[in-house]
Amino acid sequence: MNDLTNQSLKEIVENVRLKKISSLDLTQAYIKNIEGAKKLNTFVTTTFDQALQKAKQFDQRPNYDQILPGIPLAVKDLFCTENVKTTAGSNILNNFVPSYESTVTKNLWDSGAFLLGKLNCDEFAMGSSNETSFFGNVINPVADQLVPGGSSGGSSSALAANLTPATIGTDTGGSIRQPASFTGTVGLKPTYGLCSRWGIVAFASSLDQAGPMTKTVTDCAIMLEAMSGFDEKDSTSINKKKEFYSKNLKDNIKGLKIGIPKEYRVDNMPKEIDELWEKGKKILKDLGAELIDISLPHTKYALPTYYIVAPAEASSNLARYDGVRYGYRSQKSKDLIDMYENTRSEGFGDEVKRRILIGTYVLSSGYYDAYYLKAQKVRQLIKKDFDNNFKKVDSILTPSTPSSAFKIGEKTNDPVSMYLNDIFTVPVNLAGLPALSLPAGVDKQGYPLGLQLIGKPLDEQKILNIGYAFEKNCGFKNKIKKWWS
Amino acid sequence: MVVMSKEKFDYFINGEKGKYEVIIGLEVHAQVLSNSKLFSGSSTKFGADPNNQVSLIDSAFPGMLPVINEECIKQAVKTGLGLNAKINNYSVFDRKNYFYADLPQGYQISQYKNPIVGEGKVMLDMPYGSKEVGIERLHLEQDAGKSIHDMDPSNTYVDLNRSGIALMEIVSKPDIRSPEEVNAYIKKLRTIMRYLGTCDGNMQEGSLRADVNVSVRKVGDKKLGTRCEIKNVNSIKFMQMAIEYEAKRQVELLDNGKNIEQETRLFDTKKNETRSMRSKEDAHDYRYFPDPDLLPLTLEKKMVDDLKKSLPELPDKKKERFIKEYGLSPYEANVLVSEKAISDYYEEVAKLSDKKLAANWMMGDLFAMLNDKGLSILTSPVSAKNLAELVKSIKSSEISGRIAKEVFEIMVQSGDNPKKIIESKGMKQQSDPKELEKMINQILTKNKDKVDQYKAGKEKLFGFFVGEVMKLSGGKANPQLTNEILKKLLTG
């Protein structure tokens, strides 16, 4: 058997079930890859000893009925993991070891998987290039000096470099879909409320949603099945029956109506993106889907709306990092106020500070109505745009990002141009919808590009089905060469 | 019977430049009676060791989320119904953002624009008649923890046991006009909540605290003056002292042509004065916004209806009934409904004995004894049943009122049934006319000279004869019969 880490999750699971590979072999293979990939800077923490022990335990008493039998997984360092350091990419949580396990990771472990390590990410998931992490930027395995996207950049990079068979990220404004697009992988942001937020370090509570990042659509369905589910500990969790996404995966999409929103053709968009979009439309049409031109008139307000709502919530969510009970505390303070100021000045990086300032500003008395309240109203209009169109279409096809992966440092001095990267992904978060980013092609430099399928609330199965059919007919193959070891 | 005189309201501050009235509004923080906190499963029991009732949610660990405690919602709705207030079927939890060491989240979850309970009213019984105080709103919020500054010279200690406990903030309209009315208002609120079982009203344990808003204006002025808010006062006495001080301070300022600054003040209980805490310019900007971790709260009509049906009889209704059913005066009824346990006790006594006499005995000897011993009605050594027996014995002339007081004393000490005491100590009243006549004749024979003097017109000697009869009978002679027979024999 050639390199088993090159396989999809589905293949690996099948091979484990067929006893062709043991959990221990699998785990050792990934550990070897990880040790050889330090240059990519994907891991903040590794838990090899623990993983090897779990693998041995599985091999001794295998349970093949589980969805993820004996599968080692690395996860974004935003998920709290019991007795394993959880940093959220920040200095302020550099020493934080939770005594509890997030619901989503617990669901994975209950499905047979175990932890390989914690993956780098933008600080508190604020960023689109993984350059804001206290632990340094992550490199895209596609090419040296290329960003892996963000904020789940460690996740996308580790996945594309075969350092984990699948992974999970969180998506507040595109943090799963954009890095997936930049690394030629599949990323799904589920419907808001499908996956529990309990135990995930919060960025913007009304937008945050955990989701799978995988090599294939089938893998994505497997992971979603394992990680999702109602959780009474999260008041915004949706109480619904569990779905079996992988078993119900179908590639017949004949007659489905696909909306093509004219507002997603933005100024100065590279020609390649347009061509990619055309390619996607053609594939779906050839599969028997019906393309329908639609309009989402409030799309242009999505980005400014997002950059009011998300920082506002973040400014409040991050108030708990004050040095009083856990995490980093500055030692050189003379009184309480001084301690707050020093702790937070030294504990947070620039991007996080920038967003706390924006958020504090838009919530201040005198500005609340003009910014926050107005943004909430616009958010409703954006949601209504989608609602209206979903009366006549099953899914909406758009590009995932306005460009391919950019160079490290290229946008760090221009926050607005960095924010513009989220232009196609944020409307989905504002409306609480599910959306799938699929690898669909490459630009002229050979860097991957993604297309996005947006679905109705809780219609994950349908966009996975469309993605599944698309994947079979797209012929995209990630051609990553192992240049880093 | 005690009759209240219709006094006139008279609480004004006489300044140099006129007579001022004092306008008071209260924001009462009442701790919800519930086993667990507003958004977590931690216990709310008072008096645990520091930081022993703190969950990951109460201490705001990363990724922790609040989940509403339905019991607290019901308690707030019940309280709202008890305040004759509008129940809002849609309400929203907001975040009130500020930094403090005992506020783990960096925000307090509260209700800002959409409280669970809207306008209502409370009736006060004042010596000058009934007085209505409007309720502006009632909302639910989390309590903060406690900072302890005096345990260590260089550190502050934080106890988070209280962090996250549910509070009801009950905001009155500026309808209160005197420290006396503050007293009546707080007591009335407390009575209502104790009847409902929604707050224990225990001020020593901090279950009931208030922010007091005070302003003054010249009598006759329509416009409200600038108010100052005195924060977190935890006893009625301190509220009254703070108001008196603050009102005088404001009048003095106005008399001297100065303006009153809108500010938050603290009441220093040792110096008996209020002090500026922060001015309006320094006021926090709390940056309220709806908590995205919680969905808006919608109440089902059925739940509210069920709670309405399950409400106990509340003090105002009970008072009306006591007046009608037991023939009590409004004052008596008022005292006897002031606590649910007292009203229950009264009803038990009244049903078994005499309504009026029962009220007199409770409000007289029983309350005096409880007060004296520092006991409550629930820990009274005299049970309702025993008091009823005693009242019955008086009513049936089995014992005299004077003997009854002796019996009562023994009941307090022994907890015994009065029948048993009367019998074992032979305290029954002598009401046999023949026996009494025998006794009286004996005394008249012994005091012939005094009988002559009486007959000669020295009528005040009558009391002397009564006294002698009482002495001879050991206090057991029926006073009424003794009088009758004495009169007959002396004139005969």
Count of alpha and pi helical runs of chain A: 15
Average pLDDT number of chain A: 96
Q: Which class best fits the helix and strand makeup of chain A?
A: alpha/beta
Total DSSP helices of chain B: 15
Strand order, largest beta sheet of chain A: 4-6-5-10-11-9-7-8
Measured by DSSP, the beta-strand proportion of chain A falls in 5-15%
Q: Name the beta content range of chain B.
A: 15-25%
Overall tally of structural domains of chain B? 3
Q: Quaternary status of these chains? A: heterodimer
Q: Give the helix proportion of chain A (percent range).
A: 25-40%
Give helix % range of chain B: 25-40%
Instruction: Describe the global form of chain A.
Output: globular
Structural class by sheet pairing and helices of chain B? alpha+beta
| Residue windows where pLDDT falls under 50 for at least 5 positions of chain A | none
Ranges of chain B where pLDDT stays below 50 over 5 or more residues in a row are 1-5
Outline the biggest β-sheet of chain B.
Answer: 9 strands, mixed
Radius of gyration of chain B: 30 Å
Spell the H/E element sequence of chain A: HHEHEHEHEHEEHEHEHHHHEHHEEH
Reported for the largest beta sheet of chain A, the result is: 8 strands, mixed
What is this entry, summarized?
The complex is a heterodimer of chains A (485) and B (492). With 485 residues, chain A is an alpha/beta fold.
Give the secondary structure arrangement, pairings included.
The complex is a heterodimer of chains A (485) and B (492).
Chain A: H1 9-17, H2 23-35, E1 43-46, H3 48-60, E2 72-76, H4 103-110, E3 114-119, H5 153-160, E4 167-170, H6 177-183, E5 186-189, E6 210-214, H7 217-227, E7 257-261, H8 271-286, E8 290-294, H9 302-317, H10 336-347, H11 350-363, H12 369-389, E9 395-399, H13 415-419, H14 426-431, E10 435-442, E11 448-455, H15 460-474
Chain B: E1 12-15, E2 18-31, H1 70-82, E3 90-91, E4 94-97, E5 107-110, E6 120-126, E7 129-142, E8 146-148, E9 157-159, E10 166-172, H2 179-196, E11 208-218, E12 228-233, H3 236-255, E13 263-268, E14 273-279, E15 289-290, E16 297-298, H4 301-310, H5 315-326, H6 330-337, H7 340-352, H8 355-373, H9 384-395, H10 401-414, H11 418-424, H12 433-446, H13 448-455, H14 462-473, H15 479-491
Parallel strand pairs in B: 12-13
Antiparallel strand pairs in B: 1-2, 2-10, 2-11, 3-16, 4-5, 4-15, 6-7, 7-10, 8-9, 11-12, 13-14
Helix pairs in contact in B: 1-4, 2-3, 5-6, 7-8, 7-9, 9-10, 12-14, 12-15, 14-15
